[in-house]
Each structure stands twice: as structure tokens, then as C-alpha cells.
Amino acid sequence: MAVKKHSSLDKVLGRLDQLDEPNLHNLVQRLARERAMLEAVFNTLQEGVLVIDADGVIEYANEAAARLIGLKEPAAGETLWRFVPGLRDSLGGAGGASPLVTREFELAYPSPRLVRLYMVPFAEGESGPRRAIILSDITAERKSTAELIENEKISSILLLAAGVAHELGNPLNSLTIHLQLIDRKLRKLKASKETRSLEDSIKICRDEVTRLDGIIKNFLEAIRPRPPDLGEVYLPGLIEEVLHFQSRELADRGITVKGEMPDGTPVIMADRDQLKQVFFNLIKNAMEAMQPGGRLSLKLRADEDSVYVALADTGSGIKAEDLAKLFQPYHTTKISGHGLGLMIVQRIVRDHGGHVGIESKEGVGTVVTLQFPQKHRRVRMLAGG
């Protein structure tokens, strides 16, 4: 739809040389009001609006544009190329004849953000065509899109992992049944040193099958997208349970455990089974990172709002380039790893209103710190306080 011109103003401007001083004064006031109104309109826009000449000199910038590129008033004499390095080259020079240009680029100043640029020549200036530019901050849009894609990817991976874990249950059930049959037949045989040895071996096999079944059960419960079933949890007691469950493997690997878990540690609101999976995964990772003779340290502390658990190992550490990828699905530094353990840990801790932090140094070891809100803080969070 075409915009109607102010015909009365055009007529006045057409006979400007015929105006007397009072009419000229009125005209100046009217033009000032028109300019102020246009300035107010442009400054209400969330998009940045710029006008540059053929050399990239900024002739006009609204408030949003000034914020986006870190432009200080006044704009006179500043070139757009200084605020957006590389833009001039990508446009083929200041005097390029492109009727329309659309670009997306990153700005590091005044803060990191992704910007979409729309530029079109609109009027001839002294040195060539002026360009009108619209800048849109698409950082949040791109971030939400990336998060959506990542969430869909994780959901697909978890669905696949759940299917695989479920299928593993069938052979485990078969093993349990056949071990029971073997055990019954052994009991009918005459007791001897050999039969007692076989009974011991069968018991070990049955215990291992039970342990594997428990791992799968905990894994399935952890990856299913269900909210935590909150109840009061005393973390020192829960960690002791997990360590007891893993005590045989810790002993087999020659790993010692040192714990600082004060009796007065405040309770938190959490899902016991999900938190067991968290600590099982982290302790398992620590064990696999250490050589025989390694040491695992667990330290609990609390402030007014949170409870912190630090798990430190004396393992091989993590390369700096791998630290940023630790929580990505299927990213693993282990030959036989599946890359889901830390992703599950992060999801469960986040669902509990907590945070996961990791510090590591190659050849020294890794420290994983978990932060959970205390019971009174969790209640306020649930109530929206």
C-alpha cells in the first residue's frame, strides 16, 4: 500500500522562496515536529534502522541499531565497516550495485550476538547510492531453534537406548532361569569339593545377573522422560548405599574411597532412584578413569540454600577440547563407552533444580561438583517463590 504524501507541506516547500519570516518560522517548527515524530516512531522499533552513504558512513541510526552495534552518539563520521568488520568485503565494496543484500553475522561487541542484516539502496547521495539497513537480533531465535533440535535428538537417542536396554532384559531372564536349573541339579548330586566350587561360581553368576538387571532397571528409570518423584533424601546415606553396591568393583580395581560426609548434612527433596543413577554413573566414570591404586574422594558441604557434593578422582583427566562436549549424547572418550552417562546425569540434576560442574586436568584427575537446593529452597521454587 502506497504512503500518501503530505500534499499541503509539499505545496509549501514548492514555494519556499516566497515565504515571509513568520511563515518560514512556522514551517521550521512544523518540520521539527515531523522529524521528532519520525524519530519517536523509529526508536520504538525493536529492529535496528541505519542509513549509510556509499562509503559506509552512518548518516542515521535509531536507538536499537546503536545498542546492537555499540554505536555512541553522535554517529556523524562513523562508518558501519568499523562496527561490523568484514561486512564491506562481503558486499563487494561500498559502491556495490546489489539491489538487495541479506546477511547473518556474529557481533562480539558490545555483547556476543547473532544479527541478521537486510540492506537495500534507496536514494542517490553525493558519492553514490545511500543504503537503508535493518538489523535484527536473532540470537534468541537461533538458540531456541538449536535447543529444539538438540532436545529432539536427545529424545530419539533416549528412545533408542530404552529399547536396547529393554531387549537386554530378555537374555538376562533366560540366564536366571538356567542358573536356577543348574543349581537345582547340583543340589541333587553328592556333595564334594567340586560341587561346592560350582555352587560358588553359580552364586557369583546369579549375583552378577542380578546386578546387571539392577543397572538396566535404573538406566530405564533414569532415561524415561518422567518428573522426579520427590521425597526427603539424606545424601550421605544414599551415597553410602551406592558405594556399597559398587564396593566389589572398587575393590577389584584396587581403588580406595575417602569420604567427608558430615552427619548434619541438610536433607534435599529428590527422587532416590534417579539420584542413585547419578552417583552410580559418576563413580563408574571415576573408576574407569583410574589405574589400580587410585583414590576416589567424596566431600559434602552446605550453605544456606544448597548442598554440594564433590567427587574427585586421581584418573587420567580430560582434555580441554573434550570438556565442552562432555554432556553431548554419544560423545565419549572411552573405547567401549556409549556417551549417555553424563548426559543422563545432567538431565536428572537439572530436573532437581540443581547444577553440574566439571573441572579436570590431564594427568591429575577430575572433580565433578553437584549442587542441589535444600528442602526449604526447593519448596519455595515449587511454590514459585
In brief, what are we looking at here?
β1 (48-52) and β2 form a beta hairpin. The protein has 13 helices and 12 strands. By secondary structure, the chain is an alpha+beta fold.
How do the helices and strands line up, and which of them pair or pack?
Blueprint: H1 7-14, H2 21-44, E1 48-52, E2 58-61, H3 63-69, H4 80-83, H5 87-90, E3 101-107, E4 113-125, E5 128-137, H6 139-188, H7 193-223, E6 231-233, H8 235-245, H9 247-252, E7 256-260, E8 268-270, H10 272-289, E9 295-302, E10 306-313, H11 320-323, H12 341-351, E11 355-361, E12 365-373, H13 375-382
Parallel strand pairs: 7-9
Antiparallel strand pairs: 1-2, 1-5, 3-4, 4-5, 6-8, 9-10, 10-12, 11-12
Helix pairs in contact: 6-7, 7-10, 8-10, 10-12
Domain PAS: 34-71
Enzyme class: transferase
Pfam families: HATPase_c, HisKA, PAS_8
What does this structure look like?
By secondary structure, this protein is of the alpha+beta class. The protein has 3 domains: 19-137, PAS domain (Beta-Lactamase, 2-Layer Sandwich), CATH 3.30.450; 147-225, Helix Hairpins (Orthogonal Bundle), CATH 1.10.287; 228-385, 2-Layer Sandwich (Heat Shock Protein 90). 48% of the residues lie in helices and 21% in strands. It has a 5-stranded antiparallel β-sheet. The relative contact order is 0.07.
